[in-house]
Amino acid sequence: MNKDILRIKAARDANRLRSDRLRWVPKVNAEFDVPVVTLHTLGDMYVPFHMEQIYRKRAIEKGTDNLLVQRAIRAPSHCDFSVAEQVSAFQAMTDWEQRGIKPAGDDMLTPSVIAEPDYGCTFTNNTAGPDDLPALATVRPTLPACSAKK
């Protein structure tokens, strides 16, 4: 698969210093023509969950929302995904691209859905494996539990 990945050069001014003095903040314009599956942890304060909502709205505006599936993960930190969560999302994305099986995702825009106590439970997998960071097995069990109807 690696040999088939398209490689391109970045635009020279892609990450120039901005007027707000920030740098290295990527533009996420939802301009894609391939299946995209995102994962986002609900406790991420580095890249807040709201950014997924902006991404969804931009995809709707660009007409690419049919190619975007988003999944919320109940975890406290930035990119704090278990290996199982990553594998599941990658498998879902490749099945979608190669076999046309569009995967399930989470509603990122409806406030009443997001406010539900079990929001983010569907794709969260707290099972720590040998390749997960040790903190996963320590922290995840302390988070509010999902109901059995997950």
Describe the 3D structure:
The protein is 27% helix and 8% strand. It is an alpha+beta fold and 150 residues long. It has a two-stranded parallel ribbon with strand order 1-2. The protein is globular, with a radius of gyration of 17 Å. It starts with 35 loop residues before the first strand and ends in an 11-residue tail after the last helix.
What is the tally of beta strands? 2
Mean pLDDT: 90
Instruction: Sketch the major β-sheet.
Output: 2 strands, parallel
Work out the radius of gyration: 17 Å
Question: How large a portion of the residues is in β-strands, by DSSP E?
Answer: 5-15%
Strand order of the largest sheet: 1-2
N-end to C-end Cα span? 34 Å
Structural class: alpha+beta
Shape: globular
**Percent range of helical residues:** 25-40%
Q: Which sequence of SSEs, written as H and E, runs from N to C?
A: EHEHHH
Please write out the topology:
Elements: E1 36-41, H1 50-62, E2 68-73, H2 83-99, H3 111-114, H4 134-139
Parallel strand pairs: 1-2
Offer a concise description of the structure.
The protein contains four helices and two strands; from the N terminus they run E-H-E-H-H-H. With 150 residues, the chain is an alpha+beta fold.
